[in-house]
Amino acid sequence: MAANVTTSSSADELFVLVIKNIKIHAPPEQPFGLKKWRNRQLYISASIEGISQPKKTKPLSAKGPHARWEETISFNLTQSSTTIVFSMMSKHLMRHDKSIGAFRESIQVMLDSGPHVIRDLAGKHKYQIEFDVAKQMLLDFTGAIVVGATDAVNNMDTVQPMADPPAVAEAAPTFLSSIPSDVKSSLESLLSKLDILCQVGGVLAEIHPWAKMAFNLFSTVYKVIKKAADCDQKIQDLVSTINEVFTFAQEAQALPDKYKQQKKTITVMLQQAVECGYFIEGYVGTGNFWLRAWRQAGIDTDKPIGDFKAKFESLKEDFKLNSILQTQLLCILTKEDLEATREIVTKIELKDIPYAYGAAFQPSKACLPGTREALLDEICQWINSNTEAQVLLLTGLAGTGKSTVAHTIAKLFNDTNRLGSSFFFSKSKENYRDMLFGTIARDLADQIPEVRDKLAKVVTASRGTLDFEAQFTNFLENPTEGLVASGPIVIVLDALDEIGDIYARGPILETLANRLSCLPSNFRILLTSRAEHDIMEKFKSPRLVQHMRMEQASHTHEDISHYIYSQLAPEGFPLEGLQPTDCQELVEHAGGLFQWAFVACDFIMAPAYPGVTRQEKFTQIVSQASSKSDEALNSLYRTVLTGLFVTNNPDQNAVMEKFRNAVGPVLASSQPLSMESLHALLSRPGTQEGITMDSLQCILTYMGSVLDGVTNTHEPIQPLHKSFYDFLTKCSPDDIFFIDLPHHHWRLCQGSLRIINTHLNFNHCNLKTSYKPNIAQQYNTPSPEVSYACQSLGHHLEHFQSSEGMKTSTKPSKLIKMVEDFLKKKLLCWLEILSILGKVYVARPTLLEVAKWVQVYNAGLQHFAEDAAQFALYFGIPIAISAPHIYLSAMAFAPAASLVALNYQTSVVNMLQVTQGRLKKWPAQQLVLHGHKYWAKSVAFSPYGKLIVSGSDNKTIRLWNAQTGEAVGQPLRGHHQVVNSVAFSPDGKLIVSGSDDMTIRLWNAQTGEAVHEPLRGHHQSVSSVAFCPNGKLIVSGSDDMTIRLWNAQTGEAVHEPLRGHHQSVSSVAFCPNGKLIVSGSCDKTIRLWNAQTGEAVGQPLRGHGDWVNSVAFSPDGKLIVSESCDNTIRLWNAQTREAVGEPSRGHKSLVQFRRAYLTDGWFRTPQGDLLFWVPPIHRRGLLVLGMGAIIPSYLTRVILDKFVHGDGWEQCFQQ
């Protein structure tokens, strides 16, 4: 896999930002080493805004006034105007690491003040960070690394070979002077050494996963080479080199402490051995296939072998000289790669593909070294095996440690650039599910250039689709098709049960279950979940899915014991206030639940509240412990909360009210919010209502054992485990700790409206020009509370409306006024924020929720909200690309009768003027539905207009919500070739389809299931199908030149085929009374048939000069309409069968006018700047006339003489 590449739209030269000699200075009153720092490890995290993964130093325990890190941090960049963020972090084993202080600054400003930089860290205490910074051009930098490494090795003294083992207490380890020439012997020797490293524990426990992985991989290589007729001499030399590198293994088993300082070097040795093993397995195991694939891709196979040998020689020297390893795993970047990278950096933009920032794995949440070794080994063996089962489903009860295992596997394979992507679902981030496949795709694009190239070609319209099948096809299946790579690519998806309820997660589970096998065979997908019935049903294929259960994992008891002792007795002695037997008692009570052990330890270790000792907290925990998993966790949560908040306080009710008011919004929020954001949303300035920061802090600050992010006011807060959410929301409503979620959705809904109405203003983010897309210019980032309010208003209104509490908790008069202000004063500003955030797709659903709620109280506001939803839908493309074009394009082309346009027309001035052809109302085309992989051949509305059915070239049928355009359920599969025609039954309960596979099928429109067997009888493609008005008969037309009638109940044919056409029958339809059938044919004729007898009625209707494509009756049955390839539409009298009037002409291809500046719907300047966006209905051809433009296909005239744009675009709005 290739190295990560940072992409940018700038054409700046690639350079490397190098940061080293990092030091933190503590204030005199808070030196490192105080009691508060005991057992805490610190590290530095540095990230570039816009890059998902930060760079981190290794954790260390600091003492005294300074903390120093020797590592060098570097970033490949193209723009020095971007911002870098430094954070000093405190490491935590089982929850989010904590930020102690941070600072952010423009890279250019930092470079200008360098090379030696000192900055204050923002935080509770006044820490300072000091470091050296430099900017080097990429080619110079890579050359300097090679030269520097060579010089360093050449300048070191040669270490003498060590003596016999008994006399080597202080000597450096030796390497064999000669190695076996036979590759099989070398492999046998290497395997014995790797087996020794697998057994080394104690201080070297962290190397175990890599040692085990290398052992298993080279065992496979050994078997492959034994079967091979001969082995390439280059491979023999490479194996011998690797074998020599690991000669130290036997001594490491006897004297592990001696190698404590070289854990990192040994780990990288093993990681590099794993990577090399993948290469050898592919090179030898699959013979000429890999050689052909590599050569076709232009890869010289001699070069990677030579590079691997050189890398191992370098590692050997690092180990001999006990140097601190700074280099990374082997990554080959040729000059051609670099040139390709430059082109990618400047041309490819993937930011409009949805990405769930914050959903990736967290290294700090990985397993404690030395725990879960057997389970991790088993998973790694599956990943590295040649198995058909590409998916592994790991299930377990709440609290058994599934997520910790997922974080660990993600970390292990991320360390060797083998992690394709990781995605951790969370109940508090249900909206992230829509971004799953986009996130995986962008992660893969960062690693694999071929994927990046193909992904960049995905059309813009397809990037925003919410259909999971289409996302999978566009973002994953197509970009990875034909991918050639050795070794596995790992994808980790954690907590499938937290995607949503059984209905919300159904479509995404269906897609995962059906489509993951479409990915290349070297992809390995690890899934974790509770064993919910619907999830187990989806992934029950034993051939494609391997299943593991946490309850069957070995050594769980020992692993929990290891964790509890590491927390409560870190030096072998219990913490002050605890007894020697307390740890073991907690181990017994944990009952195999890691989450129980974590909460219990954190509760005991937390600073004691007044009058309570550690021993008393321990007693509270064990006295309430239960043996059953759910009961055990619930009992533990109740014990912790009771100890914190249930006291002898005479004002106990007030304490619990504060508890509910603080914790309720944390659980109801659609994404985690900090205390500062919660306060901004829930406070009511100038009133006695709302919540104060003190009220939030006096509750949340003490809940660190169950909530993450409570140590300061600016970190997002969320439950550490889903079971805590379940405990508070699913207990009895009479329970003292019960959280009534609908009530808190209502509070957050009101808070969101207040933020929108009081904080937003025109050009809120200070965009400088209308010429550039949002992503191509600088702007002010919205505050967290503004971002949240704009995105989540609809979410909270939807969840509140679905509850019974709506009837008793609302204050319609007050809220109606807030809704009115939102719609009539802040709507366009709100759309600005959604545009900046890349969340325009939430606008229409939110407005429809507003319309649904307000319809009971104010019909006028309901109509306004519905019109606003149409506005957001019709102009979604320009709004999503550029916020200024809400005013410059959308308002200009909005229909004259649009309530939004009428309301804001006095405020939006100096726009382009549509003086001719302006729409009076919203056009018929409201939605473009994306979801079929190929052409959609046929569409039909359900009788009540709520659903649309479509048939496609991809052999599937899809149902769509006619209001929202969203796909309903999964595709209907059963046909084996193109689906040509679809229709609803008159009652809307059935769907009929005809296909090139010569069959007709019936489907249940509600369940999507097939109704009895396919209807067979035609001998060629079925081109058209229709129901009769009473729903009892189906008519079909076929390329076999016949028409057939079928009993819709039984599926049996009704009398003989109707014959008379001399070429394919292209279209059939019933008349409204069901007595006649009309058919059109490629023989250029239309025929009428008696539906009862099947006999032809009269002579064929002649007049068309080419194929007849479509026929239909008028609603009264008196007329027939036909459409032909001769570019005419004709009307016929159904009784006399004579033509009515002249044919309607006008289907010829439109004459194209000069279109020099109309591209992708945008009218642009010669430099490519955005002037305005043209709706599709006005778009076909463009003629520029001085200061005006004529768009002839819709006879539209646009006058530009008062049009403000570019840097002066803000003049379009007046207060």
UniProtKB/TrEMBL annotation:
UniProt-recorded name of the protein: NACHT domain-containing protein
GO CC terms, sorted: nucleus; transferase complex
Note one Pfam family from the annotation: WD40
Task: Return the WD repeat spans.
Answer: 929-970, 972-1013, 1015-1056, 1058-1099, 1101-1142
Q: Which SUPFAM superfamilies match?
A: C2 domain (Calcium/lipid-binding domain, CaLB) (SSF49562), P-loop containing nucleoside triphosphate hydrolases (SSF52540), WD40 repeat-like (SSF50978)
This protein's UniProt keywords: Repeat, WD repeat
Keyword NAD in record: no
Q: Which residues form the NACHT domain?
A: 390-530
Membrane-spanning intervals of the chain: none
